[in-house]
C-alpha cells in the first residue's frame, strides 16, 4: 500500500512577522544597519585625513549635516539596545563560577554596564582633554 | 460552563491535498486544557480528528501543537489563557502526516547523531558510577528534556534548514559532555563543530521560551559554541 503523502509547510520569507518574539529578535539583529553607516563614516574620516586638509574639512562639514547626526544618533541608540540584549544573554552563555557557586546573572549584567560607563567616562575625558 | 470556539487545522491526505481550518464549539471551564478540548472534539463532535497524546501531565512530550503560532504542550496550556480566538495547528517545521500528527523522523535522527548516552570505556564504574552533587549540578538543568520537539518548532533556523541539528540534540550533546561519568566528548565534537551544528544557531532564544521543562536549550547551544571554539583552537595548535 502506498504511504499517504505528507505535506511540508514551507517557511516563508516573512516568517518573522508572524510572532512578536521574532520581531524583537529581528530588531536586535537590525541594529547592525545604522552601525554599518557609523563605521563607513569613520572609515571615510580616516581616508579624508590621508587626502589632506581640504578633504578633512569637507568630511567635518559632512558630519555636521543634521541627517548624518540623526543617523549616527540612531546608531548610538541601536548599539546601546544591542548591548542591553547582549548583556542579558551573556550570563547564560558564560556562567561564571566563583568558589563553586555560579555568580548571580544580575550581578554579571551590572558588571557589564559598569564597564560601558567606564569606557564612556574614559572616552569623554580623552575628548575633553584634546579640546 | 461557557462555550469557546476553537479552530483546528485539518489535513486528510486521503481526501484532498490541501490543509484547511475547521471550527468547533467546545464547553470549557478554568481546568480545560487544550488537550481536553481536542479530546472533547474527537469524542463528541468529529471522531476523524487525529492527534497524539499520552500522559496528560507534561512528562511524555507527545501532545505538542501550535496554539496561535506558539508551540505548546496541549496538556499544560489551558483555554482560560486565551481571550481571543484559539487556533490549533500541527507543530511547525515538520512534515504533517495527518491533522495534528507530524513526522518526527528528522528530529529523532538529529538526536541519535550526537550519541546521547554515556560513553565510557575505562572499565571503572562497571557496576555503578559515582558522582558528587556538585558534578551533577553542572549538567542537571540540561537533562530535563522530554523530547517533545517544541523547541524545533520555535526555531526559525531549523525551519529554514532542517539539516540543522537543532536545540534539543545540541543540548543533549552538551549535557553528556558536561557529565563527569562521560568520556565521549571527542566523538561528539565533530557533530557540534559542523556548520549545521552549534554554528547555525543565531540565539533567537525562542526555544528556551517555549520549553515546558525550563531546560534553556538556547543557553546549552551557545555554551556549545564556546566549547566548539575551544575545540577548534586546540585542534589548530595540535596539528
Summarize the model shown.
The complex is a heterodimer of chains A (131) and B (239). Chain A has 131 residues and is mainly alpha-helical. Chain A has 5 helices and 2 strands, in the order ααααββα.
Provide an overview of this structure.
With 131 residues, chain A is mostly helical. Chain A has a single domain, classed as 3 helical TM bundles of succinate and fumarate reductases (Up-down Bundle), CATH 1.20.1300.10. Helix content of chain A is 73%, strand content 3%. Chain A has a two-stranded antiparallel sheet with strand order 1-2. In chain A, strand 1 and strand 2 form a beta hairpin. In chain A, helix 2 (32-51) packs across helix 4 (66-93) and helix 4 packs antiparallel against helix 5. The longest helix of chain A has 28 residues, at 66-93. Chain A starts with 19 loop residues before the first helix and ends with a helix. Chain B has 239 residues and is of the alpha+beta class. Chain B has 2 domains: 2-102, Ubiquitin-like (UB roll) (Roll); 105-238, Fumarate Reductase Iron-sulfur Protein, Chain B, domain 2 (Orthogonal Bundle), CATH 1.10.1060. Chain B has helices spanning 34-45, 105-113, 133-140, 150-154, 156-160, 167-177, 185-193, 206-210, 217-238, and strands at residues 2-10, 20-28, 64-67, 70-73, 86-89, 96-98, 101-102. In chain B, strands 2-1-5-3-4 form a 5-stranded mixed beta sheet. In chain B, a hairpin with a 2-residue loop joins strand 6 (96-98) and strand 7. In chain B, helix 6 packs across helix 9 (217-238). The longest helix of chain B is centred in the last third of the chain and has 22 residues, at 217-238. The N and C termini of chain B lie far apart (71 Å). Chains A and B meet through helix 1 and helix 4 of A and strand 6, helix 5 and helix 9 of B.
Amino acid at each position: 500500500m502506498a504511504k499517504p503523502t505528507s505535506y511540508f509547510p514551507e517557511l516563508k520569507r516573512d516568517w518573522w512577522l508572524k510572532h512578536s518574539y521574532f520581531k524583537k529578535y529581528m530588531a536586535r539583529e537590525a541594529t547592525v544597519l545604522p552601525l554599518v553607516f557609523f563605521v563607513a563614516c569613520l572609515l571615510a574620516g580616516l581616508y579624508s585625513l590621508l587626502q589632506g586638509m581640504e578633504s578633512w574639512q569637507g568630511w567635518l562639514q559632512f558630519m555636521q549635516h543634521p541627517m548624518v547626526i540623526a543617523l549616527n544618533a540612531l546608531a548610538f541608540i541601536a548599539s546601546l539596545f544591542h548591548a542591553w540584549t547582549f548583556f542579558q544573554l551573556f550570563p547564560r552563555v558564560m556562567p561564571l563560577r566563583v568558589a563553586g557557586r555560579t555568580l548571580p546573572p544580575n550581578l554579571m549584567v551590572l558588571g557589564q554596564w559598569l564597564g560601558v560607563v567606564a569606557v564612556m567616562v574614559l572616552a569623554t575625558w580623552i575628548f575633553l582633554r584634546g579640546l | 460552563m461557557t462555550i469557546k470556539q476553537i479552530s483546528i487545522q485539518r489535513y486528510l491526505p486521503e481526501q484532498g491535498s490541501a490543509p484547511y481550518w475547521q471550527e468547533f464549539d467546545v464547553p470549557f471551564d478554568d481546568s480545560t486544557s487544550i488537550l481536553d478540548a481536542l479530546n472533547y472534539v474527537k469524542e463528541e463532535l468529529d471522531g476523524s480528528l487525529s492527534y497524539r497524546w499520552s500522559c496528560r501531565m507534561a512528562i511524555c512530550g507527545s501532545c505538542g501543537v501550535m496554539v496561535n503560532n506558539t508551540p505548546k504542550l496541549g496538556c499544560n496550556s489551558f483555554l482560560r489563557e486565551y481571550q481571543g480566538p484559539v487556533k490549533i495547528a500541527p507543530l511547525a517545521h515538520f512534515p504533517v502526516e495527518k491533522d495534528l500528527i507530524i513526522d518526527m523522523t528528522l528530529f529523532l535522527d538529529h538526536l541519535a547523531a550526537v550519541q546521547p548516552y554515556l560513553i565510557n570505556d575505562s572499565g571503572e564504574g562497571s557496576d555503578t558510577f559515582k558522582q558528587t552533587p556538585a558534578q551533577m549540578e553542572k549538567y542537571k538543568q540540561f537533562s530535563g528534556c522530554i523530547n517533545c520537539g517544541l523547541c524545533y518548532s520555535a526555531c526559525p533556523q531549523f525551519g529554514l534548514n532542517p539539516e540543522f541539528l537543532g536545540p534539543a540534540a545540541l543540548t543533549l550533546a552538551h549535557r553528556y559532555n558536561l557529565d563527569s561519568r562521560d568520556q565521549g566528548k571527542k566523538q561528539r565534537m565533530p557533530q557540534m563543530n559542523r556548520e549545521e551544528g552549534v554554528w547555525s544557531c543565531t540565539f533567537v532564544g525562542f526555544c528556551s521560551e517555549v520549553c515546558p521543562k525550563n531546560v534553556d536549550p538556547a543557553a546549552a547551544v551557545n555554551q556549545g559554541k564556546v566549547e566548539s571554539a575551544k575545540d577548534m583552537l586546540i585542534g589548530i595548535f595540535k596539528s
